[in-house]
Amino acid sequence: MIYEMTIPQFTKMLHNFNKFLDKAQVNATERKFEMDVLLNARLAPDQFNFIRQVQLASDTAKYFASRLTGKEAPAWEDNEKTFEEVKTRIQKTINYLETFKPEDFKGSETKHITTPRWEGKYLTGLEYTNEHAIPNLYFHIMTAYSILRHNGVPVGKKDYLGEMPYKK
Amino acid sequence: MIYEMTIPQFTKMLHNFNKFLDKAQVNATERKFEMDVLLNARLAPDQFNFIRQVQLASDTAKYFASRLTGKEAPAWEDNEKTFEEVKTRIQKTINYLETFKPEDFKGSETKHITTPRWEGKYLTGLEYTNEHAIPNLYFHIMTAYSILRHNGVPVGKKDYLGEMPYKK
Fold first, then answer.
1. pTM value?
2. Distance, in angstroms, between B29 CA and closest chain A CA?
3. CA atoms within 13 A of residue B90's CA, in its CB half-sphere
4. Domains in chain A, number
């Protein structure tokens, strides 16, 4: 169930993220300013900028998948500077998530998950998923979204949520 | 599993929300402005203000629990104006969530969930949880958080995530 409640939705959110990046670029062109302004924007002087939010969303998703399944995560350099590089980072993350299958997550609920920062402490896989990975992913995506929203890019909740698989 | 991945974490996030509201009030007092300024603030002129974000986070959690379990949701008026009223709304939501038990959600994954706005269309309980309820809850909590962050209230990711149940 952990897989079903994370990987497909994380992938969808990263696709949505890519789409509001595209909207931002169209808007920058229309309003005649450099996209770099948005990529380096933040809501407060002591907040990470837009690019760093993308990198952190990417890392959150990547390390979640890698830690819960016990597979080694690819190393990515955090050196993105341009619109294209930022989009590539998101796409690379989507591609990585798509390598996982439901069976890779079997038994991950009770696995002990730790990170280099936690000095030997751990969370169970279920706790890590609910209290760490999911809220962190939304944190960074929403911070990036809010930076755009505050700067007048016409993104809305529909862009954030993406398509719903409605049935009749 | 749906219960385990939602109700305890939704409750925790609403508690964290309450805590950053308290931080906001302390900060307003220190910086000598009315808390009302923050309660009515927004990041863009066409965005709902802070109070409305609280009401929408509350509704997201309330309707999630009620729709997935088939229990009727209490009606709340959306008439909060003061700091105390906003905090009461959050607490009321927490109290409501705490009335649910894991067994109330049995079989909810495959249930057909609809809302008055969807004109007869539906999502499965699992889709509604992952693609609607969870991202919407984080959307409104993070928008409220970002409004505070942008206005210089010293909230950070630790306040947002809350305590982690680390083990040794």
1. 0.97
2. 20
3. 27
4. 1
